[in-house]
Amino acid sequence: MNSAGWLNSQAFTALGQHVIWSDLIGNTIGLAALALGWRRSLLTWPVQVLSGVVLIAAYHSARLAGGEGKQLLVIVVALWGWWQWRHGKRQAHDGSVAVRFAGRRERGLLIAGTAIGTLAVGGLFTLVPELSWNPWPDAYIFVGTLAAMIAQARGLVEFWFAWLLVDIVGVPLAFSSGLAFSGLVYIVYLVLVLWGLRSWWLQSRQTTAAAATRPATAVEGVPS
Q: pLDDT band at residue 151, thresholds of 50, 70 and 90?
């Protein structure tokens, strides 16, 4: 059996769902990427790319061209986010990525872009049924995931809120569709999202406090 064949073979059966190796490994790597994002580690991006590559194999096995296309877009956004974190100037005092809440304009663009994107992608999935078996929830989750990744690349705490909104739909959708294992994966994502949200929220307060004291320090003639 070649490597592609092994990746697409059955790993085990859980809760009445047949789980193949590519799905199991891809989602496990995705969980690791989210945990690394919580730690603000640059490794979160190459790990997300690896997760996308493995999941493409899963979708290819199931002959779901729409799923393959979605993962390709996820990989492209992950590569852009990787570049942003490597070359961006928003660094915290410890050398990690500085995080903050989005400004009013940024937040508005994220919300508007997500809404318009969901309508556009949902419409496409409806017109081309082979791209998705459940067009509107699938479009919501897909566009929400991209919005979350864009917010993450910019170091915005809203990254976690976007993931939270994705999970709110993803968990019940998976269980109602008979995909109990996928539902359990989404629950683990939810736990990581809540921890990550708390961590980035607290870090953003430190970043804001440091920025607020820097001008005063400079006036007093003390090196910042």
A: very high
- Distances in Å between the Cα of 30 and the Cα atoms of 51, 78, 108, 161, 181 are 6, 12, 28, 18, 15
pTM: 0.83
Both tokens assigned to 71: 């993962």
> What tens digit of pLDDT does each residue of 11-30 get?
777 767 777 787 788 888 98
Among the listed residues 151, 148, 40, 50, the one whose alpha carbon sits nearest the alpha carbon of residue 98: 40
Q: Where is 80: in which H helix or E strand? A: helix 65-87
- Distance, in Å, from the CA atom of 34 to the CA atom of 50, rounded to the nearest integer, reads 13
**Whole-angstrom distance, CA of residue 111 vs CA of residue 26:** 28
Q: Compute the distance between CA of residue 195 and CA of residue 129 in angstroms, rounded to an integer.
A: 37
Question: Residues for the chain: how many in total?
Answer: 224
What is the structure's pLDDT at 219? 37
